[in-house]
Amino acid sequence: MELIFNQLETKKKIYAQDAYMTFAKSILHLPIFQSVKNGERKRTELKIDSLYGYKNVEMRFYPLSVGFDFDVFYYILQKKIKSEKLSFTINLNQFMKFHKVHPSNKKVYIEKLKQSLDNMLDFYLKFSYGPKTYKCHLLTHVEESEENREEIKITFSKFFENFYKHDPDLIFNLKLDQFKEISGDYAKMLYMFYFTNKYETTVEFKIESIMKRLNSEGYDRKEVLKTIKKSHEQLISIGFLKSAKVIKNGRELAGYEIEFEKRRDKPLPEPKEKSLSKEKISFEEFDEELPF
């Protein structure tokens, strides 16, 4: 038996490593992380009646990107997942090292980081799961230090734990290296959606449910289906899927039969605690190209 946030009991292994992280199904399964155009910032309200066990979903938020914002969230979740604390300090140099950002890009990168954290401040989610309704927030405070501009203090909402509380065993250990091999936004979202519904080697998904996860119901259906097809090809090329077969109802596409590749990954050992103050930071191996 392990503890999430040092208090919620789960039968599963909890990981908080650079390459392996424990996510609640709700975080990846619901359309929290989406395809967001650069420079786009529009507050959105989203309602979904039902999506594979989650009912009466309501979201009010600035859409979080499946690229950069997810990278930021991965990093801060690493600090929170095994701790009952709510407040943590982000060291910007360590954050840049984690994402392999060259120092020449520091100014642009930091501004984008601050915007990402601001968007997380304004996030609200409500959903029903079983007989209960849960309300979730991400952050309540983001504080920059006047004494040390290399650090930002963040405070998680006490309601963040509701992402995990509705079922502490409904968690999934995402392998960041494989996720980073994916280039397209739709492919990344489908990876999240399929990954959290991988209960058998072969699983059928309705096209309506897929489009809800992609938040693409308002877009041209023909173009969306083309992008889904390309996304499936990419997920097959990285070894996540074995096949994605079309299911039809007459002439209409009804969904996909998704067959997963059989992979047996050995459990990772627990990481040793790092001393941030003593660790020497080297950027020599990092590319100067911005990761977004």
Task: Describe the protein in words.
The chain has 292 residues and is α+β, with helices and mostly antiparallel strands. The protein has two domains: 172 residues, no CATH class; 77 residues, Winged helix-like DNA-binding domain superfamily/Winged helix DNA-binding domain (Arc Repressor Mutant, subunit A, Orthogonal Bundle), CATH 1.10.10. The chain has nine helices and 16 strands. The radius of gyration is 19 Å and the shape is globular.
Keywords:
globular; 9 helices; alpha+beta; 2 domains; 292 residues; 4-stranded antiparallel beta sheet; Arc Repressor Mutant, subunit A
Q: Give the % helix.
A: 25-40%
Ranges where pLDDT stays below 50 over 5 or more residues in a row are 271-279
Number of helices: 9
Number of strands: 16
Could you give the topology of this structure?
Blueprint: E1 2-4, E2 8-10, E3 20-24, H1 25-29, E4 33-34, E5 44-51, E6 54-61, E7 64-65, H2 68-80, E8 87-91, H3 92-98, H4 106-121, E9 124-129, E10 132-137, E11 139-144, E12 151-156, H5 162-165, E13 171-175, H6 176-180, H7 185-195, E14 202-206, H8 207-214, H9 221-237, E15 241-249, E16 252-260
Parallel strand pairs: 4-7
Antiparallel strand pairs: 1-2, 3-13, 5-6, 6-9, 8-12, 9-10, 11-12, 14-16, 15-16
Helix pairs in contact: 7-9
